[in-house]
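Journal club prep — side note

Before the paper discussion, L.F. wants everyone to see what a predicted structure for a comparable chain looks like in token form. Sequence:
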Amino acid sequence: MSIFNLLLIFLLPIFIILFLRERRGVSQKLPPGSLGIPIIGQSFSFLHALRKNTGDKWLQSRIQKYGAVSKLSLFGAPTVLLSGAAANKFIFTNDGVILANQQPHPIRRILGDKNLTELRGEDHKRVRGAIGMFLKPESLKKNVGKIDRVVRQHLDMNWKGHQTVKVSLNLTYYVEVVLLFLILRVYPMMKQLMFDIICSLLFGLEQGKDREMLIHDFHLFTQGLWSVPINLPFTRFSNGLKASRRIRRVVSELIHEKRSAMELGQASPQDDFPTILDNAIVVMFAGHETSTSLLTFLLWFLAKDPVAYDAIVHEHEEIAKTKVSGELLNWDDLAKMKHTWKAAMETMRIIPPVFGGFRKVLKDFEYGGYLIPKGWQVFWAASPTHMDDQIFIDQWKFNPARFDNQTSIPPYNFVPFGGGMRICPGNEFVRIESLVSIHYLITQFRWKLLDGEDVITRDPMPMPQQGLLVHLEPKIVP
């Protein structure tokens, strides 16, 4: 045997061991980035960026620096940011296998650990199915008329002539002109309307002290969801926990009354939602926060885009012509509101109500050549794909025509409601309450922005910092 062959036999195992060791080293490589200070990590800088409406830039700066996979720490836990359509697909299609829908510590403490976003396996299927019974199209069809009545009542009580402001202008020493403006702050009014709808459908809860208290506490509750989990007085996390406890007391009483009515045959189980406290609160929270954001910014965009506004006005006036005085909207009417829903989807593309979401890593896995360890959390965000100029050309321009052919948008690029088996179960409910609301807003009012450059903030839901002040002009409805 030649010396070469002897050397080959001797060295080959060494090469194999070195190769396997190198491969093992690559597979065990954590993503680039830093976990920062324990517990705090990058939470403060992330939340600060959201409140300054620079969350998109905050994400893009990380992606440009580290790539589509990077490590950081958010809300007290080591986290991996995965961005892009491929990452969205991976996250949405691996639930229960590699990933679980466990939320960060602040969300679990405030929402409760038995809510839908925490449940797994058969428990998740059972509760999601029960909530789906309440939110399925067959049930929602029966509730279109109820939503219609709530919207009309709210507009009559809060939008028609109750926000008039008298302004005196001294043009000269001798001449004074008095102007009457109908000034309205859209965001808080829209929030009240959406909360009225969800309270009426779930519990038949009429306006009063309980409802006023609940909407105030849900504001604190929401602020606490994305917060640094430091339970000290006056922190957002602490205020969120306190608000959650107060909400639970009120909702527990409402659930008890609902169950009693069902036992007496005064309420139908088919119209009921799961009477589990944590999930009742989740439905109340999600049922008004996302729609509030969507409708507020839809009005904002329409005020800036006369072409889109005129197309939607025409669509709703044509529907209104088919209705006799006082007749309620129905399911078929909603199906005709195609331009409106395209504008709504474009609104959610540019300003998604939910910035992103979290998953818990169930076991070690490799992604993009990096190790993602068991016990860490994965964070995904909507903006990296919503603002991808390869998919959405001129991405900052409001253009509802992008959704004329929705099949032209590649999968996992437009994800305002998430995706996969964890897609928001209330997305159809959001569509219905939004379409009914915009029908009466656009057929009964015209509006003009008083501050066209109203600053946007996220806290954590997006909202105009000044609440979107508009000059409202009631239309003369024949």
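L.F.'s comment for the group: Residues 4-8, 14-27, 167-171 have pLDDT under 50 and may be disordered. Keep this in mind when we get to the figures.
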